[in-house]
Amino acid sequence: MIFSEKYTTKWHDTDASRRVTVTKMLVMMQEVSNHHIESLGMPLDTLRDEKGLAFLLSKIRISVYRPLYAYEDVEIQTWTYAAHGFSYPRCYRIIRGDEVIAEADTVWALIDINNRSLVKASDCDVYEFTDDEPLSLDVPQRFRLPKGAELESLGERKIVWSDLDYNMHMNNTKYPDMLCDFLPVEDIGRIKGVFLSYVNEAAFGETLDIRSVLADGVHYFRTVNSEGKTCLEAQIILGE
């Protein structure tokens, strides 16, 4: 069953090109899913504080079809489908009138924060999720470098206070802006797809090495912490 809310985009949702950023689209989507979860009887804060559980985003694919600007009225939809193993899938759609602006497919994990263990979907008795249809997006499901492509370091990025969620790690919605900071400005307005795979959490105070390569209209990224562990693998797909 689709859960939806109305939203009016804000001036502060937009960037230098006056378009709503991918990061703000991701924030809007996740706020609606938070409200969806709350409507099922247990807000995320209660889930954490009373049950000792938290949802962590594992992977997201976003397709952007049309630009979105400030002070436009949109409907934001979310729904779940076929949870299995340790994976809790969820979809999103942003609609302006009769136009689909963007769609996203995500996979979440449910973690016991006391022992850092994952909770199987079959063992989750907190929520009853519906089993709707998944999306079909023109965005890769895995991070695969083209043959012969090699990632090169573009610079470093320290994880600071404004990046954090309540787990003291970089909030997943902060990553698109971080990657765009390392893109050529002329490419940011051409983004038509984003793939983000969260491998390890980036903790407060860590410094990430941002590595990237451009191949066939796709910016490939990998962020690596001081211990040599990959935190994020990503693709930013450009249109015309």
Could you outline the blueprint of secondary structure elements for this entry?
Blueprint: E1 3-8, H1 22-39, H2 44-51, E2 53-64, E3 73-80, E4 88-96, E5 99-112, E6 117-118, E7 152-158, H3 175-180, H4 185-188, E8 191-198, E9 207-215, E10 218-224, E11 230-238
Antiparallel strand pairs: 1-3, 2-5, 2-8, 3-4, 4-5, 5-6, 7-9, 8-11, 9-10, 10-11
Textual characterization of the structure:
The protein is an alpha+beta fold and 240 residues long. It folds into two domains: 3-123, Hotdog Thioesterase (Thiol Ester Dehydrase, Chain A, Roll); 152-238, Hotdog Thioesterase (Thiol Ester Dehydrase, Chain A), CATH 3.10.129.10. It is 15% helix and 38% strand. The protein contains four helices and eleven strands. It has helices spanning 22-39, 44-51, 175-180, 185-188, and strands at 3-8, 53-64, 73-80, 88-96, 99-112, 117-118, 152-158, 191-198, 207-215, 218-224, 230-238. Strands 1, 2, 3, 4, 5, 6, 7, 8, 9, 10 and 11 form an eleven-stranded antiparallel beta sheet that branches. β4 and β5 form a beta hairpin. It is globular, with a radius of gyration of 18 Å. 30% of the residues are buried. The mean pLDDT is 93.
